[in-house]
Design a protein that fits this description.
Layout lengths: L3 E3 L15 E6 L2 E8 L1 E9 L13 E2 L3 H17 L3
Parallel strand pairs: 1-2
Antiparallel strand pairs: 1-5, 2-3, 3-4
Length: 85
């Protein structure tokens, strides 16, 4: 099962993250979205307003609202794949 992880600024990993998981880190009014496949590849950004309210974190943490967050991250990944990103 895919898991979404909230990570603090400057962090590219989350203990327990597995291939296919997503990392999200806040950058102002945006969240950078990364996909894990051995290491993290940052695939794009989503406006914070498109996601449920998420807490700021000081250490990697499983995201609340997993289903909604994973769905949004998958949507971004599909859009990037379709445009060749």
């Amino acid at each position: 099962m895919t898991t979404a992880w909230l990570v603090p600024d400057g962090t590219d990993t989350a203990p327990g993250a597995q291939d296919g998981d997503y990392l999200l880190r806040r950058s102002g009014d945006l969240y950078e979205i990364g996909t894990v496949s051995g290491s993290c590849t940052w695939i794009g950004t989503l406006s914070a307003s498109l996601l449920p309210s998420l807490p700021d974190v000081d250490a990697p943490t499983e995201s609340p609202s997993q289903e909604e967050v994973v769905r949004a991250a998958r949507g971004l990944q599909t859009a990037e794949d379709n445009r060749g990103g």
